[in-house]
Amino acid sequence: MAQRFDAIVIGTGQSGPPLAVRLGASGRKTAIIERAAFGGTCVNVGCTPTKAYVACARAAHVARHAADYGVRIGNGAGGADVSVDLAAVKARKDGIIGASRDGVERWLRHAKNVTVLQGHGRFSGPNTVSVMSEGGHTEELEAGEIFINTGTRAAVPPVPGLERIWYETNSTILSLTELPEHLAICGGSYIALEFAQMFRRFGSRVTVLVRGSRILTREDDDVAKSVQDVLAREGVEFRFGNSPQRVEPLGATPGHGIRITLGNETLDVSHLLFATGRIPNTDDLGLEAAGIERDNHGLIPVDGQLRTRVAGIWALGDVNGRGAFTHTSYDDYQIVAANLLDGANRSVDTRIPCYAVFVDPPLARVGASEREVRESGKPALIATMPMARVGRARERGETDGFMKALVDAQTKRILGAMIFGIEGDEAIHTFIDTMTADAPYTTLQFAMHVHPTVSELVPTLLDGLRPLE
Description:
Enolase-like, domain 1, alpha/beta, 24 strands, FAD/NAD(P)-binding domain, 3 domains, six-stranded antiparallel beta sheet
């Protein structure tokens, strides 16, 4: 006989745990299911570990350039002999994610009215879920409210010879304890570029294989070119119009290298990383038993309140196609909780898209790009400013990049903004908050900001608005 609950949450990513705790606190008897590591992608193989690696890579980069700041390391002039112990970097990362993962689990296990079950949850009907533990024991659960939060995993293209080599994904590469001599990365978006820069700063030779003619295809051309120039200057190699047509091992056993066939030429590397997209974890959820259909990408269609087409079932996080970031997943939780528990009427349809690419300097964006504004045909204003005008950037010796803002010429509302530069991932929130408040750009333009910061130049940027021609 099935155990009866009021609510079931499948998955412990960014939206699942806080939702389960809120549901339990509301008086609902709640079950939350996790088949692997608590915390989901972000905590275990996503944001937390990769940003820990980014921090280590930046430390190495700063040490190598210490002499530029008049700082001498040992008896040398600064950083020429700086090396990275990848095993120590990994150990630091493991400690950080371990604390986060354990914290999520403890929080759930001590939450009121919340039962934690470990195993693989699958729908067995519209309001029933079976949970199979590692030992093969199965429990049947029943609830009137079910929330899917199962996340995504790395997508790997079907390259001939792939079964004969050892390749890396964003998850497995975090287990390496020795630096790759030559790392090839397939992909041209944010995951590929973050790993490219960090491993180049660690000391590896890095070659990025981009299928198209440019990186960061969702960004404007000037933004993508600026990011590429920074990474290329640090020694990251780019090869455009290239993707593996065949791979084969160099040697009789794994670990001796990989030969990649690219058209009429080959590239020999020590390691190969695929950063070519993500697949939603929806293929083994038994969705058909619940009457839930997936789209062509494996995503679960939802409405603005994140309800699936089956009554009583919601989909949150990366599986719903409404955002693929930790912050969008957490916002999904806030929307569902507000509507279900607080009597609100919030919708994901009104959410303003924002994100950052954590290369160094970071690239941050909110709203529409210049290309999107041009395609819309709206009368608009545009302003750009090089980061070299920012005092904080000059003082830190990090003047790469620029800012860009776009404004509706008639309503004076901000349409979008981009900052590629030092602390841009923080300064972008001045735009995000103004846009969320639906305030005119003059609210931000006339604000007094603290000196010397990056944000203080945002009003100056807006002073330079001109018609978008």
